[in-house]
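[Automated response] Your request has been received and processed.

Submitted sequence:
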Amino acid sequence: MEEDMEETISKNFIEQIIEKDIEEGHCKKVVTRFPPEPNGYLHIGHAKSILLNYGLAQEYGGDFHFRFDDTNPTKEKEEYVNSIKEDVEWLGADYHEHIYYASNYFDKMYECAEFLIKKGKAYVCDLNAEQIREYRGTLTEPGKNSPYRDRTPEENLQLFREMKEGKYPDGSKVLRAKIDMTSGNINMRDPILYRIARMEHHNTGNKWCIYPMYDFAHPLEDAFEGVTHSICTLEFEDHRPLYDWVVNECEFENPPKQIEFAKLYLTNVVTGKRYIKKLVEDGIVDGWDDPRLVSLSALRRRGYTPESIKKFMELVGVAKSHSSVDSAMLEYCIRDDLKLKRPRMAAILDPIKLVITNYPEGEGELVDVPNNQENEEMGTRQVPFSRELYIEREDFKIEKPKKYRRLYVGNEVRLMNAYFVTCTGYDVDEDGNVTCVYATYDPESRGGNSPDGRKVRGTIHWVSVPTAKKAEILRPEHKTEGEQDVDFVLTTTEIIRMIKEAGIDLTQMPWEAMDMPFGLSSGAGVIFGVTGGVTEAVLRRLVADSGMEALNEIKFTGIRGTKGIKEAVIPYGDRQLKIAVVSGLKNADELIQKIKSGEAQYDFVEVMACRRGCMAGGGQPVPIGPRTKAARFEGLYRIDDAAQIKRSNDNPIVGELYEGLLKGKEHKLLHNNTDL
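Generated structure:
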């Protein structure tokens, strides 16, 4: 008895309703659905609805339906349809063959409308939108009947058919339900069922000029598909009487049941679709997948996993009343999901140099570092260690704060996975900022433990200066015959800061032509910024005929476009060249695995780390979104189309350089020891 009680208590209120319906024979097979309107991208709140509806169908051995509620062509786009489908599949909601479009039911919905007219339950009204609002009344005052409410069924049927035939202008007539203009629920005061709207529909084209309203279409869609439990958010609670009215008056034998649950609200983030849409359209954020948003595409771009989203929804649970969830819980879920799955990498965000004075100058070694300290199965990697290291600025203090266990003069700490070090001193600049810290190390403590058994209370992470990314110019391969090729490395962020500090306003500078040879460029160089651009430049080089016809044929080989992995077969002489173009590290890894396994073989592979291309530039604080990338993508090809020179080898300036100043040096400069 106690076990049964515990089981009942563990069920949420929706599960309790479903189980009661099954027990009482109201439904034989549970059918749920997720019916998004394709008028924007999905966000974290939609994930709750997807996973809840899919989870209920799984729990009770039923079916999960995925349906596009595309009854409003004024706001819907094919772009949104594709993105929603991608998000649902990414979350793992397997709808099998159960994917539907509300627009495919337009004929059946029309039949239901005529059925209501014939029953005397619907009428054609000539009031405009403002007049309908006026007649509707308020929350405290009842509405009044439309002067067209008493039209006969025959007259209403004729007028409605004429609306369908396009005899009336947009907004001139509507079809309304005949319910009760004095109802305490304002949604029941003769709501609009159909309106006239001449818009091309993404699915039905121009077949229809009248479209059903959501409150009419939605219950019908559920009924047509045999949905048993229509799970929706709490905002539709006041619409439930209308939902029930539609399915009952249309006389469905086993009508669906609407159940409402509380929306998901996150603190410190914008979750409403219309608000996110405004941010996108106003250019405040760069597309729907801007990492600052909580759209599913943005979360996916930030590295969130479907498993982390599912875990989050399990923790949030299902409730009947609204509440806010701390966004930190979502961040906890991704950390918890990844902590055993992904390797841990070291990065120094605010570096100061640590010099180990008793470590041999000019020498270094490799230390073993676990890829994941909590998952031994992920193995280890070797990390360079040297006399000079970077540590976090906050890991050293001139004046020791209370309970501070990291570096200060005289204190010994552990360099993670390396050695014990003791701080001996430091340097500061004229402003008193620490520029360098000095320490000695214990050679016997390699690996982070001392043979004498002594303990240290602080552990700090580090990276080796000679091999740090910012110091990559110090590597031997960046020298030519002992001479350093590059003196300094600057990020774009640093360049921007320098320009601002110098007081340079680029918008006020006079226009002038670029210096040669850069003033005479080829289209092949321009398109390097798009994925597939390098490949196209190579193909142009291989084409014997530099005429426009030959070059234009390359456009249609399949190497253009923003698709993550592109494949093409190109005829070259007496053979067929197999080519792959890939962008994005995930796609690159997928392709590499196919090549390793022997599943795929290519003659030429182009890999671009940045998704869709690198036309955004490197080191940007806020990456650009797909919309901006797509525009730049097209822009680069337009520049290429206008270029007089299409191939770099046809550029006389470049040819002159390679025959003169650069003759015999090209391979050395490229650090390429193989012949072309």
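Summary generated for your ticket: The chain is about 30% helix and 20% strand. The domain at 125-205 is CATH 3.90.800.10 (Glutamyl-tRNA Synthetase; domain 3).
If you did not submit this request, please reply to this message.
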